[in-house]
Amino acid sequence: MTTSKIIDSAGFKRTVNRLAHEVVENHKGVENIVIVGIRTRGEFLARRLAATIGEIEGSTVPVGILDITMYRDDLRGKLDQPHLKSTEILFDISGKVLVLVDDVLFTGRTIRAALNAIMDIGRPSLIELLVLVDRGHREIPIKADFVGKNVPTSSTQEINVKMREVDDDDAVYIVDLDGLQKEGKR
């Protein structure tokens, strides 16, 4: 197994800053925007994005946290009970531009679950997707509106996002699992 750092701490900060500027530019401000992060790392990315937008625009953007556990399509057949956390969206999303935030876009199934959860909460006028890393391999036709970094991966690779709030580091790694599969460890 080999691991390569593709975004370091400084690059992480620059990427969040660029994404915040892109959101502001795309909407010519943030008057009708709300940000919702998907637990876990999407939550922290959403908070950082909102803080950066606040610095740019001098105004506060509402931030919510979405738990999609019960909307996942891969819960059936699992023996363990899912670990539920709370959804914390303490503002009305109806008629708003909702920027949905996650760390990695892969198959699209997480985003599909998040869209279902959002529609149970309210009816935004527009939902946009912002991801730190898009690694490809979609199983559902989902495309991000804002992407920090496109990282084409193979089926034997993973993207590992570290954030200081949970990992004591800000970095993105690409992990080549090819060695593990050859050894029968995966």
Describe the structure.
The protein has one domain: Rossmann fold (3-Layer(aba) Sandwich). The C terminus is likely disordered. A five-stranded parallel beta sheet has the order 3-2-4-5-6. A three-stranded antiparallel beta sheet has the order 1-8-7. It is of the alpha/beta class and about 190 residues long. Helix 1 packs across helix 2. The chain is globular, with a radius of gyration of 17 Å. Helix content is about 30%, strand content about 25%.
Instruction: Identify the CATH class.
Output: Alpha Beta
- Hey, roughly how much beta strand do the residues contain? 25-35%
Gap from first CA to last CA: 11 Å
Largest sheet: 5 strands, parallel
List keywords for this structure.
alpha/beta, 31% helix, globular, Rossmann fold, 5 helices
Quick structural gist:
By secondary structure, the protein is an alpha/beta fold. It has helices at 9-27, 41-57, 109-121, 164-167, 178-182; strands at residues 2-7, 33-38, 63-66, 97-105, 126-134, 146-150, 157-162, 171-176.
SSE map:
Layout lengths: L1 E6 L1 H19 L5 E6 L2 H17 L5 E4 L30 E9 L3 H13 L4 E9 L11 E5 L6 E6 L1 H4 L3 E6 L1 H5 L4
Parallel strand pairs: 2-3, 2-4, 4-5, 5-6
Antiparallel strand pairs: 1-8, 7-8
Helix pairs in contact: 1-2
